[in-house]
Amino acid sequence: MKKNFFLILMFLLCAITGANAQKKYSLYAVGFYNQENLFDTCHDEGKRDYDFLPNGSYKWNGLKYSHKLHNMAQALADLGTDKLPGVGCSVIGLSEVENSRVLDALISQPKLKERGYKYVHVEGPDKRGIDCAMLYNPRYFSVKDVHLYPYVPEEAKDSGFVTRGFLTVKGEMAGEPVAVIVCHWPSRFSSSYYREVAARQVKKIKDSLIEADKNCKVMVMGDMNDDPTNKSMTEGLSCKPDVDKVGKDDMYNPWYNILTKEGRGTLFYSGTWNLFDQIVLSPNLINKNGRKDYSSLKFFQNQIHIRPYLIQSEGKYKGAPKRTTAGGVWLDGYSDHLPVVVYLVKEQK
């Protein structure tokens, strides 16, 4: 039998000293992974999915689609298993999924099916047909409410600007109210302004969730198409890299220092790492001023999830994430992004 999900975690006991060292803790993993064009081979009416048809530019066919599903299931099943072997993530946010059909096929893959994953998805307005979604393990997360908040242009000149909405899932984890907002903000083909608009709108959603229930713990996750240092994150969403500087209306961004001090990221472009894939946390998910109070669910660690199979091992793109297709060549890979994970801890009663 796999290790019980509720463990006395040795690494945690090393971090929590004194009387707390005799306590037992439950660990939960929460992840995010950009699926890089998880399309089926069928046309969806009204969507520009023509590149991912058998006669499209990617020559997308049953073989390539089945390999893509297998590969993504492998990566998703591995997510969070560094510290929770055989268990993985309780929740995983996804971006770039085409529809509910591909999600049905994804969770039917053996590596995910054996965990019992389910999904949340609301068809969005993106013209290419890519949406956000959320996988969850019902043993550890229960869904209470789902809403897709649309991206609303702030200026009349942008009335025709259409992009992904903000998938907001309210539920319960570890016996506590938890809300997850899954995002895929406007691409870098659009100026920073459009991502700043997205950030301001997500902040309003986050604020409203906490105003409705001060105990609700909120995680905003996604492919932000911006680094932790960019204005959308630091100002629009009001994220802080230092836990002790996080105010009641701010969020904590544990990825800032990974990029700025360690030079690591989740996607590699023109010889430089970016860290667009982030999971940021509301203040009630962190310990400040050196406290180690895990009587309620709290942030413990975060990591960029890396496996050798996720990295291109040779050729022009050596060292970068191994994507499905590059330079017009099918690589039978995974994604142009690496996944990210945060670990949350709660003391067992």
Major sheet characteristics: 7 strands, mixed
- Rg over CA atoms, rounded to whole Å, is 20 Å
Q: From N to C, what is the helix and strand string?
A: EHEHEHHEEEEEHEHEEHEEEEEEE
Shape: globular
N/C terminus separation:
24 Å
Strand share of the residues? Answer: 25-35%
- The number of helical elements comes to 7
* Low-confidence sequence ranges: 1-19
The helix content is 10-25%
Mean pLDDT, rounded to whole units? 94
Number of strands: 18
The structural class is alpha+beta
What does this protein structure show overall?
The chain has 349 residues and is an alpha+beta fold. The protein is 19% helix and 29% strand. It contains seven helices and 18 strands. It has helices spanning 10-15, 62-78, 100-107, 110-113, 192-212, 231-236, 256-260, and strands at residues 6-7, 25-38, 91-97, 118-121, 131-136, 141-149, 166-173, 176-184, 217-223, 239-240, 251-252, 267-269, 272-274, 277-281, 298-304, 325-326, 329-330, 340-347. Strands 1, 2, 3, 4, 5, 15 and 18 form a seven-stranded mixed beta sheet that branches. A five-stranded mixed beta sheet has the order 6-7-8-9-14, with helices on one face. Strands 10-11 form a two-stranded parallel sheet. Helix 5 links the parallel strand 8 (176-184) and strand 9 (217-223). Helix 2 crosses helix 3. The radius of gyration is 20 Å and the shape is globular. The two termini are 24 Å apart.
